[in-house]
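=== RUN LOG ===
request id: a7f3
mode: sequence -> structure
chains: 1
length: 303
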Amino acid sequence: MQRGATGRRWARVAGLVIACAFVCFCSALPAHAQSQWFGLQKPGTPADQQPLLLKKISIQQRLNTQIPLNLEFRDETGKLVHLGDYFGKRPVVLSLVYYQCKILCPEEIDGLVGALEMLKFNPGRDFDVVLVSIDATETPEIAAREKAFYMKRYGRPQTANGWHFLTGQEPTIRALASAVGFGYVPMQGPDGKMTQFAHASAVELVTPEGRLAQYYLGVEFSPKDLQLGLVEASHGTIGSLVDNMLTYCYQYDPAMNRHTLLYVRIIQAGGVLTFLFLVTFLVVNFRRDIREAREQKTQLANG
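=== RESULT ===
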């Protein structure tokens, strides 16, 4: 009876070993093979046939590009600053807008503020927000007015030192826009006097070193994506253990401008857990078999 129970136990171990081997095999497949195996292959992207104007105002994602931190701007107080003043310690949420925009920019900033309201992270402590005007005619006074408006909207006055509304000269603005991949075109306003700008809408997450990490297009932003993106851009220096675990299972997808669940990563994590379970199972059973063998030997010696 004892021998039969032991046999069944080791049969279960063999089954678990086979399952673990299958998981490890799947995890070891190349990325393209994993995509085909699990039906995750993305369809081909059609050729770009956009009109010339749309190409000029498009967003070119230049991931891992170093932005020029020596560029000079003026902050909302009129102080001359360098872009690098806001880097070195924390990740940065960067957005190129213009403050007197009546259509797209207010929607973008409202969307950003609304998403950041949902985060447990705070500007000035965990990250910084840097907005740069693409209109060289805008002044620090205009920037200060915009900051006051959005700080009231954000509702966390203690974070004011983490929000920066910058203005600058045309060559400096162009240099930053080119590095970020932000296209914009000046256009005459309806009154024939005020200049407006045709541009796309996006916010960028930048690492503390000044490298472009992620892009989020549009005027509405997912708080979950922003939170995961900030944790990743900070190299894990902000956020909880759970946040860092989620960045392993979710990965930023530049094509979709959001984080997607990586089934392969989940399988890999499952493989590790299975391996640890198997090791524990084997150790416990080995010790049990040794103990039972000793007890049988003792019984035979005493009998």
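=== NOTES ===
The first helix runs from residue 2 to 28.
The chain has a mean pLDDT of 79.
=== END ===
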